[in-house]
Amino acid sequence: MTDFKIEPIEATISELKPGMKSVNITFKVMSTGDERSVESRSDGQTHRVLDAQVGDSTATILMPFWNETIDELKAGETYTLTNGYVGIFRGSLRLQSGKFGSIESAENGIDEVNETLDMSAEEHSR
User: How many whole angstroms separate alpha carbon 60 and alpha carbon 93?
Assistant: First the structure.
């Protein structure tokens, strides 16, 4: 039997493209939106979600945070996402942790964020 493990991709935000999987990336939380409740189509449960603008020295992107991760999130802090992916939601590029990704505080903070390039601002189609 073959193990179909995808090699992790170390990336910067400006390098992100729709459909990328197994992405490892370090980002700083720039700002957070309002928390909202959504009902899952798969399990019918209600989940909390909050969109945040995150960035690194190359660009910024929108990233949703779910449930208990919201409580641990702090604007101005730097985190590392392991095994994330890049998706499209309502036509805009999003960095996602998904159910297999993990987010932890980064060892080194990000001081300078390039806010002139917003990867979520460009319209994308599926």
Answer: 11
Number of independent structural domains in the chain: 1
Each residue's pLDDT tens digit, 72-92: 999 999 999 999 999 999 899
**Alpha-carbon distance 49 to 95, whole Å?**
14
Instruction: For residues 126 and 113, give the distance between their C-alpha atoms in angstroms, rounded to a whole number.
Output: 28
Q: Is residue 34 part of a domain?
A: yes
Residue 76 neighbours by CB under 8 Å, 6+ apart = 28, 29
Q: CB under 8 Å to 35, separation ≥6 — which residues?
A: 48, 49, 50, 70
CATH number at residue 81: 2.40.50.140
pTM: 0.90
Q: Which domain holds residue 20?
A: 11-105
